[in-house]
Structures are given as structure tokens and as C-alpha cells.
Design brief:
With 739 residues, this protein is an alpha+beta fold. It has 3 domains: 5-15 and 22-37 and 334-543, no CATH class; 47-293, Cytochrome Bc1 Complex, Chain C; 604-738. Helix content is 38%, strand content 16%. The chain is built from 18 helices and 19 strands. Helix 4 runs antiparallel to helix 5 and helix 4 crosses helix 8.
Amino acid sequence: MYSPGSREPAAAGPAEDAPTPRPRPAPPPPFTIFPAPSRPTEPRHRRGLAAVGVAYQWVEVLLDRLVSAPLNPLYHSGTIAVFSLAVALVTGIYLFLFYRVGTDAAHQSIEGIMAHPLGIGSLMRSLHRYSSDAAMLAAALHGLKMFLNDRFWGARWIGWVTGLTLLALVWVTGATGYWLVWDTQAQVFSVSSAKLLDVLPVFGEPLIRTFLEAGRIQNFLFFVVLFIHITIPILLGAAYWMHVMRLSRARFMPPRVVLWVTGAALVIASVLRPAFSGPPADLGRLPGIVPVDWFYFFYFPLTRLDPLWGWGILGVTGAVTLAVPWVLRGAAPARARVENLACTGCTRCWKDCPYEAIMMVPRPDDGGRYKQLAVVNPAKCVGCGICVGACDSAGILLGDQPVSLLGQAVTGRLRGVAAASGGQAPVLVYTCRLMRGLQGRLKADGTLEGLPGVTVMGLPCVGTLHPDMITKSLEAGARGIFVAGCVPEDCPYREGSLWLAERLQGQRLPSLRTLPEGRLRVRWYSPVEVGRFLAELRAFQRELPAADGTPADRGGQGMTGPVFELRRPPLARLAGFALLLTAVSWGLGAFAAFPWTASDPRSAVVRVALKHVASFEHEVAEKSKEELDKLPRHMRPQSQERSRTGRRVQSVLTVTVDGQRILRKSYSPGGLRGDGPTFAYEEVPVTPGRHRLEVTLADGHADRAALTPRRWTIEQDLEIRAGQAPLIEFSEDAGLRLR
């Protein structure tokens, strides 16, 4: 809570008939739970994060004014993501009933679903795609919001890490779903993923060989991918439980209006813009221009880089995002602590804590007369102070400071400001996140430049404010109380604004005993809405009764503004919200099938793949039958050639087109000891037309002349059309041949 403490200027009391001067009031005691608004010692990266966060908060404000705060989709992005996944799950069950596996059957079954009577299949397939895209978009926006609003470090680190895990799992289930369609997008995804994974020394045979021809892709692979696709939701459920396990009363679905409008928008977009597949995959042709879902395959342009670059980008990005809660952490918050003797065991703090940081345990034998005791877990406490506002016995300390200091600071502040203004009672403002926005306007005594007769007390959260503080502040000399809290849907501590509103309206304990008619106003603001706050504060000042009870500047009309602002959005805002989500859903369709040039339609390539057992570098004797029998059964060679072990020479591949050498490259043998077969895959670009193609594979030079390197050559006249990708493959039995 912000209080300038000893910097509070001494003030004289109001003038009296007697000329004897009254003693100057003592400065209020320091109350430093909320830091001073100016924080020059904050690191530069933290200040940069705050500056970017301000820009994001202005976007939220614009949406507030367009559709109203209760309907702002950015405030419900997390629950919208969960709802979208639920829609994808339900529609996925329908698609699963009619899906068939296989390189030909998969694409045909999807097209068959699209042709179901009454458009049911098309609706289900489109809803499945658009809800998956909406889940990815909403989850990404939710993570961005948590990052820019500084809600990812400290006790919230587990939410950040599990959130990244959830985002990765959503991507996996979506990407495997696109693979099952087996269209040109799936072809690009398969080939690029195989090249990326083949860099890792974990596969006995490169995965890219699986995608040389359609006939090599077995139905079993489709079953494996389908199994991954439908079992990921189980992992999503476990990861989501970890994501919210530290939250009390975690919300799984958005508010009813937001839920129904979101669902209706997805249905409208699915009807007006059905989702279609790309052309069926053809591994013998280049993919050309491919309709790509950029929500999932945003990285496709990077697939043109070397796979090692891909792993480098992935590793650096993953390490940086995981390290964010520790690299960009702020100052440790003032955590709560319970004074055992003052605790009555009423359980209010336990019920109101948004993060399950408080437990009720049996009271030890400490002389207390109550059976239970509240205990704060500092590892979960975020320093919001909501428990302080729930405690009637003032038994909770925040930052090792009792709440009584707040009352003393408020009393001293009110007396000092009144004395400085000639005895006029000031308006007292309680606020939280607006303190940063007011930084350039606040004076040392909490008054605002350009707005006399007002003093501001900062709180970590307006939920820290106990209702009795309203009454005591008025009794201490406040002319009126103006509470400027966060938008309830965007409270950084989840429920602080909501709990305060319910306490002041008598809907939650502790409650305000008597609502001070005409002297209390509660409003909700984004941290950047300083202008609106100042305008409404000035209006509140004008409407407050004067000392003699006469309304100021209003000729006896009294207060014109309600204590609480109306939260129900008008019909026009609801219509705007529906149009906004429909437009977003329509945009999902455009962005989910935006064309990308995977390969120039006018180009062609010749693919060369080989699996070659090269010669040994040295003369190697065969193992005897006795030696082979000593080996485990799974390690015994299957051929006479494999019964010899030793390092093999490199293999040299040469490709010549029309007499011009295009490629000459050496490949090392596989295996930890270099005694395994050599694998290679190359794509040689050629211009469409008729070409004389010569491909040569040879063993590298051996140490001894007696070991003559082997050599294989194929010469072929080929008519290569645009988009074609003919395959030349080497096998030990047939040598080099055109497939």
C-alpha cells in the first residue's frame, strides 16, 4: 500500500475562533506494502515489459468500449480456448466414426464426410477445424496476456510452464489431425518433419525413406498417428489440472453469453465458409501451392533452412520461453502471515484466497480459545492482500505489517491534506493498478496535481480493503470515498474486485454495515484509463454534499451517479460482440487455408535415395560359427556380409544432368563404429524438359589397393514435366534404378 510515510508534510488544524495555534499533527506511520509509484531501480527489461504491456492494455480498453468489459473476449481467452477444445472433441467423435486409414482411403473418407446429407458432415468437419484454430489462437492470446500483464513469475511460474505444455499439446493434436487428411499440406508436413527428425541419431533408418513412395506408407502408420491424435486430449486434461491446481474456483468455461455467442459464431462461419481439404498427397510430385493452416504450420517458411537451423531455433525459443518466469521476475511481493493469537478460525480468508495459499489446521496449544487456525503457504502466496480484507480480527499481516497501520496512515493523511487545504475535507481514493498510471501526477503527500482536495491511497488490490475501512475513513474526516479498482474480469488477482463489490453490497462477509448514501462510489478501470478516472473523480467531487449538506454546484439535486456502475451490457454492445466474434471466426477460415508456395509450380526435382553397405576400410575376417553363437540372437548377422565387422568407407554420390555435374557428395556410414549401412537422400533441382541424367554411386578409396572400390551407374533419358519429382533409388540387389 502506498504511503509516503515520514515524507507526509506537517499540517495545521482548521482555524478556530481562538487565536491559539493547534499543534501540527504527527506524520502518519509508514505503510510500505505497496511500493511508491516511482521505481527508478526497476531493471530496464522490466520497464520495457511494462511499456509493451501498456500498449496491450489500450487494445483491451478499445474492446471494452466496443463490446463492454464483461464481453471482452481478451478477458476470457483462457476459457474460450477450453470451450473450443470441447467443440473440437465432440465434432471429432463424429468424424472418427466415418474415417478410414490408408493413403487413398484417408482423403476419400474425408471427402465422403463432406458429402453427407443435409450438410451435417460439412458442418462437423468445418466446426472441427475452426474450433481447433480458435483453441490455438485463444491459448496463444491468453499466454500473451499473462506475459504482458506481468502474471507469470513468482508463485505463478507453474501456470506459465504448464501453459506452454498445454499449447504444445494442442499443437500436436492439431498437427496430427491435419496429417490424417493426407492432402498436400500433410505431404509438406510429413516430409519436413521427417527431415527434421532424421538429424537426431535415434532412428536406425531415416524416416524420410517412409515417404519416398505412397506404397511404403503402411496403414499401421495411420493408426499410430490416429492414436496420438485421439489420446492427446487425455494428456490435455492432466496438464490442464496442473495448470489450475493452484487456483481456487478455477473457471473452465466462459460466461454463458460469451459461450453461446462464441459457439454461434463458429457455426455461422462453418456454414458460410466450409473447410475444404487440399488436393490428395502425391509423393511423386512437388506440392506446389498449398493451402496452409497458419495457426498450426506458421513455421513452414523455415523448412527451407537446414534442419540443424530448425533445431537451433526450436531449442533457443523453448529455452527462452521456459526461462521467462525467472529471467523477467519482479521484486518479491509482500506475503501474508497469520498472527496466531488474533486468528478466530472463521475460515473467511481460506474461502476468499484466489490461489489456495491458506489452509485451515487444528490450532496448537497456544492459549487460544478457537479450534482452527489459518496458515499461509508462502510458496503459493502472491501478496494480493485479499485475505486482509476478509479478516474481522485484523489477524493477518501483509509484509509483516499489521493492517492497523493502514488506518493510522489514512487518518494522518486526511488530517494533513485537510490542514493544507484550509480545513476542507478531502476525497479519499483507494486504488491499485492505477498507481503506475498516476505516477507523474502524485505528490509526496498522495495528492494529485491539478485536482485539489483529493488524496490517493494505493493498495496491492482493492480486495485488501476491509468494509470497515470505508466507515472509519469517513469518520476520520473523508468527504467521500472513491474506490478505483480493476475491471472484475481482468483483476490481476482474479477475484479482488469481485469480492470487494460483494462485501460492499452485503452479499459476502465481511459486509458493509451501512452504505454511506451519496459519499461512496466504486468504479472499475484498466490501468491505462487515467483520463476516465480523473474525469469521473472530478464529477464525484462536484456531486458530493458540502459540509452543510448542500450539494455542490447542483442546487440541491443530490448525487447523480450510482455507487456501482451498471455491469449488464446493453443490446447494442451484445450485437457488436456477436459481430466481432463472427468476423474473427470468418477470419479463421481465411487464415486456416491461406495459400503458400511450397515449391515453384514451374520447377521440378530429381530425388535420389540410397541405402548402401559400403566396403570395409581394411581387410576383415569373418566371424566363426562359434563366435556368432556367442552373440545374443538379436545381434547375429542375417547375411554372410554382415558376419564381418569393421569401419566402412564413405560412399560418394555424383549426379550429372546433360553432361554437367550438379551434385557430388560423400556420406559417412552409420553406426557408432561406422560399420553400418550408409543412408542418403537428395533433391536435385532440374528445369522441366528432356534431360540426359547420369547418377553414379561409388565406394570411397580404401587403404589397400587390393580393396577395389565398387561402382554403380545409371544413365537415363527422362522427360520431366513441371511439378514432377522422379525417384532414383539404390538397393544392394538391384543397384541404381528409376522408380
